[in-house]
Amino acid sequence: MAPAVIAPRILCIGIPVRDLTFRVEAVPARGSKANSSHLAEICGGNALNAAVAMARLGGRIVFAGPMGDARETSSDFILAQMAQEGIDTAHIVRMPGLTTPVSAIMIEPSGERTLTIYRDPGLWRVKLPDADDLLADCRAVLIESRCGPFCIDLCTEARRRGISVVVAVDRAMSLQDGLLTAASHLLFASEQVQKTAGVADDGEALKRLARLTPAFLAATRGPDGTIWLDEGGALEETPAFAVEAVDTLGAGDVFHGAFALGIAEGKGVREALRFAAAAAALKCTRHGGGLAAPQRIEVEELLRGEA
Questions:
Q1: 8 Å CB contact between 42 and 291
Q2: CA-CA 20 to 30 A from 72: which of 20, 35, 80, 225?
Q3: String of b and e for 102-122 (b: at least 16 CB within 10 Å)?
Q4: pTM of structure
Q5: Torsion from C-alpha of 172, 255, 157, 99, nearest 10 degrees
Q6: 8 A C-beta contact, residue 63 and residue 82
Q7: Cβ–Cβ under 8 Å, residues 88 and 4
Q8: What is the bridge-based pairing of β-strands 216-220 and 226-229?
Q9: How many CB atoms lie within 10 A of CB 3?
């Protein structure tokens, strides 16, 4: 009998968010009102959405990062959702007197979303648990780029131990950001890579950043697929899967999570990107933000159908 395959353990570092999502015909004009056809209360945040995706795709996920006061209802709601997904929350740090982030999100029929979010600035003062506890038996680390200030040392230690560090870039980065060199893989969106590099072209932006970091570099472009640099510095493209999108909220996060899981499973970047594209495409076909992430069997069926 063949030995059982042990799912890779992946550490996610981020700041969970309580999302209130509203479906609207159009984002209301400034100073006006608009009725919503549907309301959903879900948990979100870049790393948390990625964690949910990885758990559904077969990873063993542990989450670390700050949350609000232990007496706060938003925290309880999010933790209950994470428990349902089988995510280990033992390393989440509760911050006395602080508020867990909350966002309000409007989703149009095209799937496009507009949002506003409140993050308590005190959350960035968090001190994560010891690296030996967090990195034990880890095959990969996925981190929201905004969390760099409180986990650069952890990412550096992970790389020293030969653990992949996948950075989900959620905003333009400073060219002096320590994550540029602490990461093994940097996943941007088109707008973010251009703003970070100061170049109005995805490919040229990736090439400029390649002079600053040894990390694998890629930029996602929604339905236009993903552009990335191979080991020789040449530009490659991974196409997106053609689907009818109804909700793009969390799609990039699902992509990041699926890619990180693929890397942890030993896939090459080309295969991991294709796996991630399939997972993100399926997520876009259903409402629910990151909680609409697909199961492994769905992704594998889509990949087989496109082979």
A1: yes
A2: 35
A3: bbebbbbeebebebeeebbee
A4: 0.92
A5: 70
A6: yes
A7: no
A8: antiparallel
A9: 5
Alpha-carbon gap, residue 90 to 19, rounded angstroms: 22
At 93, the amino acid letter reads V
Residue type at position 145: S
Tokens of 135: 């990195």
Q: What is the pLDDT of residues 52-104, one digit of tens each?
A: 999 999 999 999 999 999 898 888 889 999 999 999 999 999 999 999 999 99
